[in-house]
Amino acid sequence: MSDVRDTIYALSSGALPSGVAVIRLSGPDVSNVLATMVRGDVPARHASFKTIRTRNAEILDRGLVILFPGPNSFTGEDVLEFHLHGGRAVVEAIYRELGSYERLRQATAGEFTRRAFENGKLDLIEIEGLADLIGSETEMQRRLAVEHSSGGLSAVYQGWASRLTYGRALIEAELDFADEDDVPGSVSDQIWADIAQLKAEIESHLAQASAGEIIRDGFNVVIAGLPNAGKSSLMNALVRRDVAIVTDVAGTTRDLLTVDLDIDGYLVRLHDTAGLRDTDEVVEREGIRRARVAMDNADLVLYVEDSSVNASDRLLPAGALLVGTKGDLPLRSDEAYELIVSASHAQQLDKLRELIGTKLRGKVHPQSMAIPSRARHKDSLVKCLDALGLALVGDGRDLDLRAEDLRLAGDALGRITGKVDVENLLDVIFGEFCIGK
Predict the structure, then answer these.
(1) Tally of CA atoms within 13 A in the half-sphere of 318 that contains its CB
(2) Domain limits, CATH 3.40.50.300, in the chain
(3) CA nearest 295: which of 231, 233, 352, 243?
(4) Residue 44 CB contacts under 8 Å (≥ 6 apart), including other chains
(5) Residues 347-364 pLDDT 10s
(6) C-alpha dist (Å) from residue 54 to 20, 62, 94, 101, 106
(7) Given this model, what pLDDT does residue 1 score?
(8) Would you identify the CATH topology of the domain 7-118?
(9) Which residues neighbour 3 within 8 Å (Cβ) at sequence distance 6 or greater?
(10) 3-state helix, strand, coil in the chain (%, to 5)
(11) What are the angstrom distances between the C-alpha of 206 and each of 110, 173, 203?
């Protein structure tokens, strides 16, 4: 990361051309830039319509100028925004002028948000929530991201960390001042019951991690079955557009094909797969291998069969839904399908979407959106629980060792919010942002 004494700038709005382009600056030279490029007073936190000029008084554009003095700004530094016409030439002209200043440079990906973290304006969960909010595509993703970016999940972890700190303080007091009258005799009755309750709360919270991951990353539905069962036709019908090639030739689908679907505000990822059969064809065999891996990792498998012909060589995985296709043709009477659909006549497709939604909600039923949603959250919570388990077992261990367990538990929580030992995570997290955020 470059020297934070630099003042950084970047386009913080959408791709050009656009109706409005927002160029954001942050750093110690903001006041100098404002004084030389804009004439007249610019009241803090008020949109002022101004002419933006070069240092040689050449007019670059006219637009809104907003100044956010630090530390009460997004980054904690002085921040300046130019709201200009969104033409490429306009933005390039502003960039040329800003680039002529000695201590100004273009921002790297996520650098504005990284400065907000380093200046204590946001913690890592809030930053991840902000990135998720920018990338959200469904209503439930938006709700989860808003909860995280607004500090709801951080408040939960901070509350737990405070309870651990209080427990450690009582233990340290007993260890250091055991002979003093104003220090309670044994801390066990005061803190271990609460630590046990805390452990139970974290276990319940961790159990919601899979729900958070599904909301954020999507509910994976794999469409599987024998060749020519109608898998690709079913995918096209569900998403209401042609995304998969459909032919009468067995083995047309050779690789995984993924498309996103919004069901009841949740992101559902549909995966079309190669038909399951024995084959000597190298490419098709690799596609079948990938299909089996996808089935193993799926949240739900739709096993598709042509309901108009006799079943053969069925490879129905445990927990899969058996779906009949080609329901517009005469039905074979010896099979019991969960549902029979017709892709070509759009029969029962809404019922199938409802069924997928029901299965999804069976796995995702959070009482609150303050739930973990990333693997790193889960990993740190597991480490926290392991440390709490050691502290509670005791087994004759010295009190100072059990206090150390509580410290390790607190550190694990601190790594989630960024309070402890997260330097190696920063480049990864901030790399998720676009330039200008």
Answers:
(1) 2
(2) 215-363
(3) 231
(4) 67, 68, 69
(5) 889 999 999 999 999 888
(6) 20, 12, 8, 11, 18
(7) 44
(8) Gyrase A; domain 2 (3.30.1360)
(9) none
(10) 45, 20, 40
(11) 29, 32, 5
Helices 152-176 and 139-149, axial angle in degrees (round to 10): 40
Contact 7, 18 (CB under 8 A): no
CATH number for the domain whose boundaries are 126-208+371-417: 1.20.120.430
Long-range contacts (CB closer than 8 Å, 24 or more residues apart) made by 414-423: 414/161, 415/376, 415/380, 416/124, 416/125, 416/157, 416/376, 416/377, 416/380, 416/381, 417/123, 417/124, 417/125, 417/154, 417/157, 417/158, 418/117, 418/123, 418/124, 418/125, 419/123, 419/161, 422/124
Residues 199, 201: Cα–Cα separation, whole Å: 5
From-to residues of CATH 3.30.1360.120 in the chain = 7-118
**Contacting residues for 173 by C-beta, under 8 A, at least 6 apart:** 183
The span from the CA of 49 to the CA of 65, in Å, is 6
Task: Report the candidate in 201, 226, 416, 374 with the shortest Cα–Cα distance to residue 303.
Answer: 226
Q: What is the mean pLDDT of residues 252-258?
A: 69
Residue 132 in 3-state DSSP? helix
Pick from 379, 434, 429: which is nearest to 118 by CA?
Answer: 429
pLDDT of residue 278: 82
Report the alpha-carbon distance of residue 321 to residue 356 in Å, rounded.
10
Identify the three-state secondary structure at position 262.
strand
* pTM of this prediction exceeds 0.90: no
Buried b (16+ CB within 10 A) or exposed e, 124-149: bbbbbbbbbbeebebebbebbbbbbb
Task: Provide the CATH number for the domain formed by 215-363 in this structure.
Answer: 3.40.50.300
Residues composing the chain: 437
State which amino acid sits at residue 374. R
Write out the two tokens for 243: 């995304």
**Could you tell me the pLDDT band of residue 187, with boundaries at 50, 70 and 90?**
low
Three-class secondary structure of residue 50 per DSSP: strand
